[in-house]
């Protein structure tokens, strides 16, 4: 585990929030992301976070920030 | 571990529990109404008549922003006064008296609202029992007198609560001559001074104008006057919802972070600023109203902008206190200390996320306050977006998080489902962002608030990005997440109350601030002075506009007929046709 | 009072931001001239609206060169007039009041936004750059039918906009041998004189007359046809002025019929 379940939960929540608000900000600059793509990006981000979190710590642990 | 609140002050704890119970019942009903609205107005699932939507809307407003918030406030403040003065009420019977008045008042108002669901409402006090007038009850829309009587009793109860806490403080002062007012008591007393001053408007509006008019004692009223008197109260009440959350952020959050409050003097300054500025700003809700001169709107605008200051100060102090706590827990680095915070604790996480949303919502508030920018958003869905970020999250989420910390101390029972509680606060955070983001965007393209069906025949909204369908889906999704979160909270509270054979694992002691009251001048505790200045500011901001409104069309207006809101839409059409007929012929 | 160094900086920053916001808003008011709805207008009692010079007949009228006034009454659950027709590229001042409860006056997606309060008159001046149609909605809860309360603002191209009104009439029946008189009235609500042509058709006879209607006044035109030429029977008539058209019919009855009917009546 790279992080605790509690922090993973909050990271997922934060990434969803940034996704929703970020999409609005991007639309303001003329970059439109359709809902379906947004949902896909969300899933990918969550999957990445989960994989990163449960990946066992081995060798030289990389510091991911 | 020190003794639990419930063991030290069993009588007061009983009252706090009763207040929280009332608060949570109102929260449950209000949340249920919330999801009905989210699904109805987006046209995703409509199972009630659109006319009954306004019953739901009135209930959502009154149950949440009057009953839920204020019942929680009186409970929390009773705890804060008792715990920080280390003494109980002067007379616990008086304490129960005000709670009783509030409970009866909210029951009367609640019954008159819920009667809106009946097809054949009973006749009470000479008219149909109904109150589909929303939480703002703008005359000449008319509710049953019972609704106004209920609201008045509730307000009287809240006044007596304030007086009760002042009595407790006076008794303490006699026992502890020369001592500074403890911070939490200071916050309670200043909040109540603010409330006394600001609620004068709505009390006059109800008792002098609307109630006699609804009982047909007076024949007419001045709709702009009652509306202005409502907003005299209406922005102060916003801070009345918010300050319990502030009290928790200042007193409990630093401790939960593992440290101490950064500065006690600045906390006092913040509360004094709210006393001074939260009432003379109400006209910023009436930027679009005729009959109020532009100059008064400008004054309200500048006052409102200065009201940002206490919130900015709070942001600093709260974040600084959290950082201090994190470093006490071994956090290091410029931003890495964030990882050392107790994210696993639902009470902490809930408050921290609520603070984050509050900062974001605050910026949307600046748009509302910006007089001429307000043309774009006034009464658009943007406004409920702002409200749900502020009272619906900064306050509601903080109160829920605070309950996870406080309820075990009030019941002596261990909190059930800590992990679920963490999930609950995070779910609220995600839900509110989904919902408010959609509300902000829909508001900017002109979707109005307070309507059962924002879909019109003659035109379509010009949605620049995405589609109405997408905005609606996002709003409904957010509303659903919030509803699930609310129900989770209530279930956890219920289970905790019945979790009898357990020991709570909370430490109820609150450490003193890093910079204590001795660092602040004595004048901060001079409540008479602050009341005097606040009073003068209110007179400056309101005397002339109110006099102007009364002079234009009279204190009692020009023959304004009441409009009982009834399910019989026919009455309206008859009335309308009569007039159309009159002017055609 | 001890205040931490960072906190002092923060307070100064916050104050700069606050003053900055106030300056921005003030610039909007003074520099850009975005005025707020104020208290310039007289109050008016809702039950006197029908007798009021302006709100008795809610309408659009021209008040100056490139300036129009629109008098709008909001009531459960309609706006009057509906639709509100106005020209593009002109200053339109809306005067909005309510006949009953508090309503809203809002064109979604624009800054046309006001409260309609019984007793009060909201005044706001706007200009539409482009012709087109805009929905007008009530955005303050006003009762059970609130969500049905909408109107329409039709912005017409400036050169196509007029405030012309046409009315026309003939007698229902004319006895053969008498003249059929078609009286048309052209009203010009604008300030500039209106030069136009009135076309009329009675049965198979056509007429044409050029007229000039002064600003804010009316002009009567009469067309006369010989009933004998039309013949006995029902004849349709039409009057057109610009895009306006009035139609009706006149019946020419023979002498005997007229006499017989007259006899029955007496």
UniProtKB/TrEMBL annotation, chain A:
Alphabetical keyword list: Membrane, Transmembrane, Transmembrane helix
Membrane-crossing segments per the record: 37-54
Protein name: CbaC protein
Taxonomic source organism: Natrinema limicola JCM 13563
TrEMBL record, chain B:
Gene Ontology BP annotations: aerobic respiration
Domain Cytochrome oxidase subunit I profile span(s) in chain numbering: 20-524
InterPro entries documented for this protein: Ba3-like_Oxidase_I (IPR033943), Cyt_c_oxase-like_su1_dom (IPR023616), Cyt_c_oxase-like_su1_sf (IPR036927), Cyt_C_Oxase_1 (IPR000883)
KW Membrane (keyword) present: yes
Transmembrane feature ranges: 20-39, 51-76, 96-117, 147-166, 186-210, 230-253, 265-285, 305-326, 347-367, 387-407, 419-440, 475-498, 529-551
CDD domains assigned: ba3-like_Oxidase_I
Any GO molecular function: cytochrome-c oxidase activity
A Pfam short name: COX1
Organism superkingdom: Archaea
Any one GO CC term of the record: membrane
Record bears the keyword Zinc: no
Protein name: Cytochrome c oxidase subunit I
Organism field: Natrinema limicola JCM 13563
UniProtKB/TrEMBL annotation, chain C:
Residue ranges of domain Cytochrome oxidase subunit II copper A binding in the record: 55-167
Pfam family, one: COX2
Gene3D superfamilies per UniProt: Cupredoxins - blue copper proteins (2.60.40.420), Immunoglobulins (2.60.40.10)
Transmembrane segments: 9-30
Protein localization: Cell envelope
Keyword field: Copper, Membrane, Metal-binding, Transmembrane, Transmembrane helix
Keyword field contains Cytoplasm: no
GO molecular function: copper ion binding; cytochrome-c oxidase activity
InterPro entries the record matches: Ba3_CcO_II_C (IPR034214), CcO_II-like_C (IPR002429), Copper_CuA (IPR001505), Cupredoxin (IPR008972), Ig-like_fold (IPR013783), NosZ/Cyto_c_oxidase_sub2 (IPR051403)
Domain of life: Archaea
GO cellular component, one term: membrane
PANTHER family attached to this UniProt entry: CYTOCHROME C OXIDASE SUBUNIT II (PTHR42838), NITROUS-OXIDE REDUCTASE (PTHR42838:SF2)
Protein name: Cytochrome c oxidase subunit II
Organism listed in the record: Natrinema limicola JCM 13563
């Amino acid at each position: 585990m790279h992080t605790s379940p509690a922090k993973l939960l909050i990271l997922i929540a934060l990434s969803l929030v940034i996704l929703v608000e970020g999409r609005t900000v991007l639309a303001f600059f003329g970059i439109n992301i359709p809902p379906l793509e947004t949902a896909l990006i969300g899933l990918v981000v969550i999957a990445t976070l989960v994989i990163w979190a449960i990946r066992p710590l081995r060798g030289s642990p990389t510091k991911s920030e | 571990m020190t003794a639990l609140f419930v063991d030290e002050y069993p009588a007061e704890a009983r009252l706090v529990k009763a207040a929280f119970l009332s608060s949570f019942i109102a929260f449950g009903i209000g949340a249920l109404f919330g999801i009905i609205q989210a699904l109805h107005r987006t046209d995703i699932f409509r199972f009630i008549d659109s006319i009954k939507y306004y019953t739901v809307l009135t209930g959502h407003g009154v149950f949440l922003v009057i009953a839920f918030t204020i019942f929680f406030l009186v409970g929390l403040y009773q705890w804060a006064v008792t715990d920080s003065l280390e003494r109980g009420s002067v007379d616990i019977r008086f304490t129960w008296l005000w709670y009783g008045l509030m409970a009866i008042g909210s029951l009367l108002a609640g019954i008159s609202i819920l009667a809106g669901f009946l097809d054949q409402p009973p006749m009470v006090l000479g008219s149909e029992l109904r109150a589909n007038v929303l939480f703002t009850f703008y005359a000449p829309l008319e509710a049953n007198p019972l609704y106004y009587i209920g609201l008045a009793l509730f307000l009287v109860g809240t006044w007596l609560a304030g007086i009760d806490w002042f009595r407790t403080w006076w008794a303490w002062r006699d026992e502890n001559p020369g001592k500074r007012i403890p911070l939490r008591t200071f916050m309670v007393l200043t909040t109540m001074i603010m409330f006394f001053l600001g609620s004068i408007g709505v009390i006059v509006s109800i008792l002098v104008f609307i109630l006699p008019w609804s009982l047909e004692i007076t024949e007419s009223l001045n709709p702009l006057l009652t509306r202005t008197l409502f907003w005299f109260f209406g922005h102060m009440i916003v801070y009345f919802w918010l300050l319990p959350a502030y009290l928790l952020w200042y007193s409990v959050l630093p401790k939960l972070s593992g440290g101490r409050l950064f500065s006690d003097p600045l906390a006092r300054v913040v509360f004094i600023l709210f006393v001074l500025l939260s009432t003379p700003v109400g006209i910023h809700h009436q930027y679009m109203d005729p009959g109020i001169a532009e100059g008064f709107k400008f004054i309200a605008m500048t006052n409102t902008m200065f009201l940002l200051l206490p919130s900015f100060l709070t942001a600093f102090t709260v974040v600084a206190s959290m950082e201090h706590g994190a470093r006490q827990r071994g956090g290091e680095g410029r931003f890495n200390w964030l990882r050392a915070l107790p994210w696993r604790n639902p009470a902490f996480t809930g408050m921290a996320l609520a603070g984050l949303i509050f900062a974001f919502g605050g910026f949307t508030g600046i748009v509302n306050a910006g007089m001429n920018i307000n043309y774009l958003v006034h009464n658009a869905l943007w406004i409920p977006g702002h409200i749900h970020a502020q009272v619906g999250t900064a306050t509601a989420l903080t109160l829920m998080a605070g309950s996870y910390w406080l309820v075990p101390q009030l019941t002596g029972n261990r909190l059930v489902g800590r992990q679920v509680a963490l999930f609950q606060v995070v779910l609220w955070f995600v839900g509110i962002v989904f919902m408010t983001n959609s509300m902000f965007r829909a508001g900017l393209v002109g979707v109005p608030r307070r309507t059962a069906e924002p879909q019109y025949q003659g035109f379509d909204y010009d949605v620049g990005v995405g589609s109405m369908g997408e905005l609606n889906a996002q709003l409904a999704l957010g509303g659903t997440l919030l509803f699930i979160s609310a129900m989770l909270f209530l279930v956890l509270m219920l289970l905790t109350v019945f979790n009898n054979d357990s020991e709570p694992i909370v430490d109820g002691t609150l450490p003193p601030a890093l910079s204590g009251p001795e660092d602040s001048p004595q004048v901060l505790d001079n409540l008479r002075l602050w009341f005097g200045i606040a009073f003068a500011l209110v007179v400056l901001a309101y005397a002339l506009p109110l006099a102007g409104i009364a002079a234009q069309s009279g204190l009692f207006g020009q023959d304004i007929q009441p409009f009982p809101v009834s399910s019989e839409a026919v009455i309206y059409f008859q009335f309308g046709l009569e007039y159309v007929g009159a002017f055609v012929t | 009072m001890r205040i931490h160094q960072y906190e002092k900086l923060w307070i100064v920053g916050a104050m700069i931001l606050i003053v900055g916001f106030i300056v921005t808003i003030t610039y909007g008011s003074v520099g850009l001239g975005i005025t707020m709805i104020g208290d310039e207008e007289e109050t008016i009692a809702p039950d006197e609206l029908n007798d009021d010079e302006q709100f008795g007949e809610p309408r659009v009228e021209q008040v100056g060169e490139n300036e129009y006034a629109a008098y709008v009454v909001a009531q459960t659950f309609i706006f009057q007039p509906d639709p509100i027709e106005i020209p593009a590229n002109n200053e339109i001042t809306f005067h909005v009041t309510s006949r009953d409860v508090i309503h809203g006056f809002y064109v979604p997606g624009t800054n046309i936004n006001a409260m309609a309060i019984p007793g009060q008159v909201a005044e706001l001046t706007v200009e539409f750059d482009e012709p087109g149609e805009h929905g007008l909605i009530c955005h303050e809860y006003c009762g059970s039918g609130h969500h049905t309360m909408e109107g329409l603002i039709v912005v017409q191209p400036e050169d196509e906009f007029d405030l012309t009104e046409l009315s026309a009439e003939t007698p229902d029946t004319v006895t053969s041998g008498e003249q059929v008189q078609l009286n048309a009235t052209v009203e010009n609500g604008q300030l500039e004189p209106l030069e136009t042509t009135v076309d009329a058709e009675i049965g198979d006879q056509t007429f044409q007359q050029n007229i000039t209607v002064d600003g804010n006044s009316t002009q009567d035109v009469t067309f006369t046809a010989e009933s004998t030429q039309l013949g006995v029977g029902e004849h349709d008539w039409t009057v057109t002025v610009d895009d306006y058209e009035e139609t009706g019919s006149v019946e020419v009855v023979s002498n005997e019929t007229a006499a017989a009917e007259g006899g029955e009546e007496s």
